[in-house]
Amino acid sequence: MVTRIRSCLVIAALIVASACTGDGGHELFREVRAGVDHVHTVDLTGDFPLPEITGAGCAVFDANGDGRLDLYFTDAGRVGGKGASNKLYLRQADATYREATKASGLGDAGYGMGVAVGDIDNDGDLDVYVGNHGADALYSNNGDGTFTNVTEKAGITASEWTTSVAFLDYDNDGKLDLFVVNYVRHDLALRCFTQDGRLTYCSPKSFLSVADRLYRNRGDGTFEDVSKKAGIAALASSGLGIIVDDFNDDGWADVYVANDGKANHLWMNNKDSTFREEALAKGVAVNAHGKAEASMGVAVGDVDGDGDIDLFMTHLKEETNTLYLCEKYGFIDASMQSGLGKSSFLFTGFGTALFDIEHDGDLDLAIVNGRIHVEVGETAGNDEFQALFAEANQLFLGDGKGGFTDVSVKCGSFGAAIEVSRALGVADLDVDGDLDMVVTNCRGKVRIYENVAPKKGHWLQVRALDKALKRDVYGAVVYVHAGGRVHRRTVCPQNSYLTSGAVATHFGLGDATEIDRIEVRWPGGKLETFSSASVDAAIEVVRGEGKP
User: Fold this and answer.
1) Consecutive sets of 10 residues in the chain, 548 residues long: mean pLDDT of each?
2) Is 23 part of any domain?
3) Quick check: is 70 in a domain?
4) How far is CA 502 from CA 87, 277, 326, 446, in A?
5) Which of residues 420, 436, 459 is at a domain's end?
6) Which range of residues forms the domain containing residue 95?
7) Does 219 lie in the same domain as 165?
8) How far is it, in rounded angstroms, from Cα 396 to Cα 390?
9) What CA dihedral angle connects 498, 504, 507 and 508, to 10 degrees?
């Protein structure tokens, strides 16, 4: 069964205009404040401890069950000292946000990094995991807009330097498990310097790497650390970003971890509660030159329209970002031919997302940037943080064939922002059918960017639900057949960098005015087909109510 939630009336004709071209260009994103006044707190020590430059995370989710998407931000404070409280903003009926941290109980005061959101007890509301530099925290949603810290009760003992986090059902038992990405064993006493003797933030190579953790959900409110049993603990690397997807289409969740300065990891699911590492064999461990890069953010999507999932990675300045295209036997590095390599050479990328900005049916790309090292010849001080590390963000329009055009400079406030940006969350915040962006900035203001791009086609949003589990089905793969094309998305809200984004899958449909059918491959591999739906609508598909 397909349930229609809302539809968007198409008034007059669709605007089929070329964005950001020689005809004067069009603004694609416009900044809005809407009552969100959060500023990421970093109490600079003057000694350049690495966590100062690493945060801050965000989550976009319905915290109080009113159907509106709320915003949650991790905060920092002083490394080795007092932490600052995370912030929760609730979306109001008038499209503004109200800060509700204290009342909600989500004001975690650790040195915050990444966030994961998921329903760990299948009770119909969303719980929150906060990754910290130090002890992590798990908050259970009480169903009334408040949360209870259940970290100790749940058996969560992670106390390393957590970066990104993801909920997943790796054993297909209907309960959401937890993958925790760890960075390095940080030493506050270590100091690093530029070649001309100035203090700067250390490279992760200056510290010991830490293995990631996998927690299995027992279903009784507790989690078991199965990192060793599953094979995850066998490799220690400095992890930052994470994507959970089904990379071989077998119905089981695989995990890709972006590592900083070391080979990336692709954990393929063995279907027996263990994983095998195949990044090198699949071509996504290093770049085309065999070099391990400083991987930060990660995004997945079918950028060349061939039906499989491709990978995009953000990297350090002078490394270039990397696009891996999926081919028959693995991935190939297509960074330079795609137009994404050279254009990123002078930037340090963090959060990133592949999504269809204009609804033309092709995936576009957003990247938020910000440096991490003091350059030779520059001076550093507490009042010069922005001057030393701020960079412009980047926006690229995809052609649906694996090529991208840089439109950063021409297309509004997102490209004009010069800050130390980190997390990037994407969701339809204003419920108008297109995807907006939320950006966190290290020691800076949160930015919300409304999608105002002239649209070139229609759209569809799909939530894949399980009534018995009372939640969205993480790991479900949704295929939309429309206009002679097949569009693919996976329900995997944890992505980008330190980010948990929207759970609904979003599709730009181009000039297709009808949807032929929707297919969903559920965890475990069962495929169901759902009847056609109207375009320009948000719908739900329910496991067990489609046709085999």
Assistant:
1) 37 29 67 96 93 96 98 96 95 97 96 98 98 98 98 96 98 99 96 92 96 98 98 96 97 98 98 98 97 97 96 95 95 96 93 98 98 75 78 97 94 90 98 98 97 97 98 98 97 97 97 97 98 93 97
2) no
3) yes
4) 18, 28, 24, 17
5) 459
6) 29-459
7) yes
8) 20
9) -80
